[in-house]
Amino acid sequence: VQLQASGGGLVQPGGSLRLSCSASGLTFSRYDMGWFRQAPGKEREFVASIRKNGHTYYSDSVKGRFTCSRDNAKNTVYLQLNSLKPEDTAVYYCAADRSLILTTLRYAHAYDYWGQGTLVTVSS
What is the pLDDT along the chain (124 residues), one digit of tens a residue? Predict the structure, then answer.
């Protein structure tokens, strides 16, 4: 299984980015997907998750600003980042798991597969 995240970059506060995570080596439609981020000196934290059935979940810090979606035909999950703030600066990782449960989908240890991360820097 390989997950390839892309789309990061430097953006001004208030700006937008769209991250993509392309998956291979798995039957994508059968996997729940997640996004996490890790800022310098901080632990990895949950950002968003989209399950096989399309249901989405977000951390309180990004709810209303970020949108997670998936395209099963392209084996790709997306994270649209709007109204970006300096505190959103981090390396963003995508992750996959065969079957998440609601009580654990916000925890990194619940996911079996991880991508390499893409850096998002929000600065003026």
Answer: 999 999 999 999 999 999 999 999 999 999 999 999 999 999 999 999 999 999 999 999 999 999 999 999 999 999 999 999 999 999 999 999 998 888 889 999 999 999 999 999 999 9
Non-local (6+) Cβ contacts of 16 within 8 A are 80, 81, 82, 83, 84
Instruction: In whole angstroms, give the CA distance from residue 83 to residue 22.
Output: 24
Tell me the backbone φ, ψ of residue 55, rounded to 5 degrees: -70, 140
How many C-alpha atoms does 56 have within 13 Å on its Cβ side? 18
> How far is Cα 124 from Cα 114, in angstroms, rounded to an integer?
30
Tell me how crowded residue 73 is: count the other CB atoms within 10 A of its CB.
8
76-81 sheet: strands from edge to edge: 2-6, 17-24, 76-81, 66-71
87: DSSP letter: G
Quote the radius of gyration of the chain (alpha carbons, Å). 13
Strands 118-122 and 9-11 turn out to be: parallel
